[in-house]
Amino acid sequence: MDYYKKQKTKRIMTWNIAVILAVGWLVVSILPFAYMVLNSFKGRFEIMTSGVFTLPESWYPANYIEVLTGGFWRYFLNSVIVLAVSLIILLMLSAAASYPLARFRFRFSGILFSIIVACMSIPIHITLIPIFKMTTRIGLYDTIWALIGPYVAFGLPISVFILTGFMKGIPREMEEAAVIDGCNKIQVFFRIILPMCKPGLATLAIYNGVNMWNEFSFAYTLTQEKTNRTLPLSIWEFKGQYTMNTPMILAVLTLTVVPMVLLFVFTKDKLIEGMAAGAVKG
After folding, report:
1. What is the CA 252 to chain-centroid distance, rounded?
2. Which of helix, strand or coil describes residue 282?
3. Could you give the CA distance from residue 14 to residue 25 in angstroms, rounded to a whole number?
4. What is the pLDDT of residue 178?
5. What's the number of CA atoms in the CB half-sphere (13 Å) around residue 257?
6. What's the rounded Cα separation, in Å, for the pair 231 and 256?
7. Please, which pLDDT band fits residue 31 given cuts at 50, 70 and 90?
8. At what angle do helices 198-214 and 72-103 cross, to 10 degrees?
9. pLDDT one-digit tens code per residue, 74-100
10. CA proximity to 259, closest of 39, 72, 115, 2
11. Which of the chain's ends, N or C, has fewer CB atoms near its CB within 10 Å?
12. 244 beta partners
């Protein structure tokens, strides 16, 4: 009897600790977003005279109006183009590289996979100067197309790593049945493997999409003109040499975050499904 009481007490304590940690993480995650949204509706000098988490004395939508009527949409369009092209290329290359690593046995396959995994540990900042020189030499500097190569290259190792484990969990019997029906390896890849990898591909699209959308270092290094910059750099539009309109910058940041929040809200089922499937199959 004492054993069952101890187990029950242990479960209750574990559950309470988990709830406390979850609530703490929720508070830590919500506070910056609440600060950003509340202060984006304040006047330029009100943020200096009132508490950072106090409600605005009078809601001031002029910040958003000025942002939306300025150059915001150009930055937004650049981000959408870079994100869409980079994700398409990244997912295609990741799937094409993961398939032979997961299903075929060839010499040095293990070493090749280890090299790909090791590339995940390369710091992004040590590549800025070489990539800047390379981009300048091939004539892509100060264009949105200069960002696609680095985004794909740095998203490729973790994408191949996850997709390879995902594909290894697909039953070989389905592949063998397709071969018996007359499919070659390319047809098997497009008709069997890719459709079954949709949850994994959706998870990678969301994960890499958020990173690309918020990326700052390469966007700042490889672009110069305002017409070629992405959303993370749009705050420079509202920052002067000696002054800074903080509420307006917070309005820009809020508008930048909203698409990713909506993306997560409408695709969270796919994300959870892909993560759960990868955990089971990996």
Report:
1. 19
2. coil
3. 16
4. 82
5. 13
6. 7
7. confident
8. 140
9. 899 999 999 999 999 999 999 999 988
10. 72
11. N
12. 239
